[in-house]
Known about the structure:
Blueprint: H1 2-21, E1 27-35, H2 39-51, E2 56-61, E3 74-79, H3 85-97, E4 98-103, E5 120-123, H4 146-157, E6 161-163, H5 167-177, E7 184-185, H6 198-211, E8 219-223, H7 241-248, E9 253-257, E10 277-279, H8 286-291, E11 295-298, H9 303-307, E12 314-317, H10 321-328, H11 334-337, E13 342-343, H12 346-355, H13 360-370, H14 378-386
Helix pairs in contact: 1-3, 2-14
Amino acid sequence: MFRELIIKTYLLLFQLLFLFFSKRPLEKNKIVFVNSFGDNCSFLLAEIEKSKPNVKVILLQKKGAFCTIPKHLNVKTYRFETYHLLDTFLSIYHLATAYRIIVDNYFGFLSVVKFKENVKCIQIWHAAGAIKKFGLEDPSNRNRTLAANQRFQQVYDNFDYVVVGSDKFTEVFKKAFGIEDSQILPTGIPRTDLFFNPEVINEKIELLRNNWPFLQDKMVILYAPTFRSGEMDSFQIKLDLQKLVTFLSDKKYHLLIKLHPINRNHVSIPSEFKAFITDVSTYPNINDLLLITDLLITDYSSIPFEFSILEKPMIFFAYDLEQYEKERGFWDPYHEIVPGPIANNTDEIIQLIHDNNFDLDKIKSFKETWNKYSFGESSKTFVREILQTEE
């Protein structure tokens, strides 16, 4: 009850300031990005610099968001956190006076603002696909207040367009956000452009291997589990690192561990394992890491949707499958969604790695299903379709 009161108070103040600033004229060359991740933003800014360099860009960044800013683009950045009062004040001004609002996550303020005519709010989401349910289909909604669920719908109602990379994800978003086909923007996912640029790929691979020379001549395994609610302060890696090290020690493998930002401060790699295991949780862009990854181990994360573009093998370490399905729910039966073998423990993972018998045709089919519109031109298409000023 107290939490709901705090949220309502914040949103009321936000709404009043937004209404006040809405009296100002619309700036038809100003775009606002609201980022909690920033991966897509980096690629869109690079394209804006090339094709629309006169655009004024405002970045509203949540804590942990990372976005590469081109040198020759007019960009101003603000910390979009309540405790940064001045930045929040200025952020609301820019939201009220921009002609395009681009968001990459759920943001509660969208439940209380009404944008001017001709302003468009575009959801570029932070994933290229989905295994677990979210939005209106999230099973945890039944434990929320009526006011909270109404607020969710009000946020989704403010999306003019939602970017997708496939028809499959279109159907997910229609259920998750309660939107229509007319709101779908099939430009593909901007950050996937990376996987279709051989020159940039080679540069990034060389940089990463120079930074981590111990990866030279090694088969790289990346373990990237999803965040689980309830493990914010008690997260533990369920992999048996000792068993893995014993297996890896006489093989040409190296394990990289990329944890969710909420969990990464709760895990440390024992010093005796560091010749075979490296924690890369603080590395900002996981797609860069995918370029040097030979085998991905994950669970319910959205990472496989982009990794599949590289057509490399995956193992799904779903040690808590029944519990997770009950709490979060899946869009389809888990074993039908994932394009690789499911493991319940470390011994099974080791056996799968040893056998090296992965169905690459299944991965290719998964890739084609979820990345239909992502083929290297997504950022360019997005900018052409969306970032047009009204004449």
